Amino acid sequence: MELVVRKADLLRELQLLQGIVERKITKPVLGNVLVEAGENELRLFATDLDVGMRSRCDASVSRPGSVTIPAKKLFEIVRALPETDVRIEEDQNAVRVAADRFDSRMATEPVEEYPLFPTEGDEGPDELAAAGLRQMVAKTHFAVTGEDTRYFLNGALLVLKRDAMSLVATDGHRLALITVPRSVEGKKKREAETGDEDRVILPKKTLAELGRLLADSDVDVAFSKGGNHLFFKVGDRVLVSRVIDGNFPAYDRVIPKGNDKRVEFERDRLTSAVRRVALLSNERSRAVTFQMDPGQVEVSSRSAEFGDAREVLMVEYDGPSLKICFNAQYVLDFLNAVETERVSLDFKDDVSQSLMRPVAPEGYDYLYVIMPMRL
What we know:
The protein has seven helices and 25 strands.
C-alpha cells in the first residue's frame, strides 16, 4: 500500500476516531486504526467491539492495499506535521509515515486480525434530522450512568414515532427527556399509520460519539439496524454500535403529575448562584438547599469542613414556605444544557420529584425530573 493524503483531511478523520479506540486494550489490534487505500480514497475504521466508526477522505493512491496503524501515535504524528501532504507506505511488517523532511516507521498488527465491519440490514434507513438529534444528545447524555449493574440504564432510550422522536436518560436519581418533531418519510410512513414505534437503547459511548459526529454537521442522519447493531450514517462517516438488550424503565411513570407549585428563574442568575453556593457544599453530597418563600428563593449550602454560603434570588412566588434540597451538580447539568433565558421549577413538597423545564423553548419539548435529597 502506498498513498499521499492532505494532512488536514487525514487529521480531521483521525481526530474523530480517537474517541472510538479502546484505551484499555484487550487485544493489541484494537489499539490500531484500519487503513484501506483504493480508488483515490483512503478509508479508515476504528472499533472497540462495542462502538465503531468508518470514515474516508480523498487521497492519491499509487498502490492499493490495507494496513493497521497504532491509532494514537498516528494521530499524534500527523497533528505534529507541518501543513503539507502526508505519505503513507506499507513496508514489510511496518508502515512508514512521512512528510516534508520527516520520516517515521511504526510496527503494525496483521490486517486479518482486525474485526470486520458489521453488515447493515436489508431494511432501508430512516432519515433523522441532524439538528434535532444534536439537541437530543446534548440535553440527555449527562443523565446516563456508566456504572449501573442494571445494564439497560447504561444508555439512553431512543423512541421514533410518526411525527416525533424522543431521547430519554436516567441514572435513578434524575431523568432527562426531550422530544423533537419530525416529518414522515420513507419506510416509516407505513409504520406510523399503524401506530408502531421503534425503541432502541443507545450505549453511553455511542451517545458521546454521535454528539461529536454531529457537532459540525447539518447533514441528515441515515439510521438503520442490522442484527444486533445500530448504524448512524452522516455524510461519508458511519457510526456503528451494539444494541443494549433489555427493557428500559417505564419513564413516563416517573414524571410527576401533581406538582402544583412553580417558581421561574432567570437561568444565568440561578446558574451563578448555585455554582457559587456549591463551593462550600459537602464535597461528597454536593447538597444545596432551596428555601422557597413569598417573593424570594434562598439558595444555601453548609458543610462541617468548610462552613456555609447563601444567596437570595428575587422571584415571583406567592405559595407556602418550603425547603427542598438538591444535588448541585444535577441542577447545574440541566442549566448548562438549556439555552432559554428563563427556567421553571415545579414542585409539590420536599420529598417528591421536582420538575425543571426551559420556559418557551423553540422547536423541542424538554423536561428534567430531579429527586430531592433528604435534609
